[in-house]
Design brief:
Elements lengths: L1 H9 L7 H22 L7 H11 L4 H19 L19 H6 L22 H18 L16 H10 L1 H19 L4 H6 L8 H15 L10 H6 L6 H7 L3 H6 L4
């Protein structure tokens, strides 16, 4: 199965959907995880030791083994989140606001802990289930405050309402690539990250409380209701439709990380 996945993902002769790749990787992951937990003593049941098992006993490279874990984490996050209905099944589909590839490069890397944990499964230090709950909460806020329900496909000749245009601007690739790193700092403010380990683990922690959720809401309100998104048609639309990061535009317009976190630009 792994050989077939690699063939499809590396060659373009046969269209292969990213979501299908994730699904099948999760199947492989589960089968090997079951074997690992059966063979190894309970005291060794951790993601880190599972990666070592894949390398030592399943002849997987460390890179491939860690990618299998990452895929399972991301796949679970997608399945449980409000973002799911906005994600294209194919790698590219203009009828959807998001793609898995975009999420992998932007939102996931700034919210999920994608490295193997050393905590024993289901122990007090294992926060994978809590991480899923936290991402589920965050995703719902992104949909609500990011006006994702107002996103519509841009059809030639169709006039968009102001809200539809705003939503499309927020969720253009160039936009998401620019504001998604702010999410890491938003989480840092909400959860009062103090150590490097806390900053690295992001949503991999206890389920957020109402106070933490309220802090995130305030920041997302600033982020998605900034005047940048409501400007007249013109330069902004030309730049944001690009798939590249637009930090210079955001900085020039005052939609900075400091503004999102504090409401001030100085």
């Amino acid at each position: 199965m792994i050989t077939n996945l690699e063939a499809h993902s590396k060659h373009k002769q046969i269209p292969f959907y990213t979501s299908t790749l994730l699904d099948r990787l999760s199947v492989i992951y589960k089968e090997m995880l079951d074997e690992f937990t059966e063979k190894k003593s309970v005291g060794l049941h951790s993601e880190d030791n599972f990666i070592k098992f894949l390398v030592a006993e399943k002849q997987q490279s460390k890179t491939d083994a860690k990618q299998m874990l990452k895929s399972a984490i991301m796949d679970n996050a997608i399945e449980l989140s409000a973002l799911k209905s906005f994600i294209a099944e194919a790698s590219k589909d203009s009828a959807y606001a998001l793609s898995i590839d975009l999420l992998k490069k932007t939102i996931f890397t700034n919210t999920l802990f994608l490295e193997p944990s050393t905590a024993n499964f289901k122990s007090s230090g294992d926060f994978r289930d809590a991480e899923l709950e936290n991402f589920k909460e965050l995703a719902q806020l992104l949909v609500e405050y990011g006006y994702l329900n107002s996103w519509v496909q841009n059809i030639r000749g169709k006039e968009l309402t102001d809200l539809q245009l705003k939503s499309r601007r927020i969720w253009h690739k160039g936009s998401v690539s620019t504001w998604s790193p702010y999410l890491e700092s938003i989480l840092g403010m909400a959860f009062n990250f103090m150590t490097h380990d806390e900053r690295k683990k992001l949503l991999y922690r206890d389920v957020m409380g109402s106070d933490q959720k309220d802090r995130i809401k305030v920041c997302l309100e600033r982020l998605f209701n900034h005047p940048l998104w409501d400007e007249p048609k013109g330069e902004i639309d030309t730049l944001l439709i690009s798939s590249t990061k637009q930090q210079e535009l955001f900085d020039r317009k005052g939609l900075t990380e400091i503004y999102v976190l504090t409401g001030q630009n100085k």
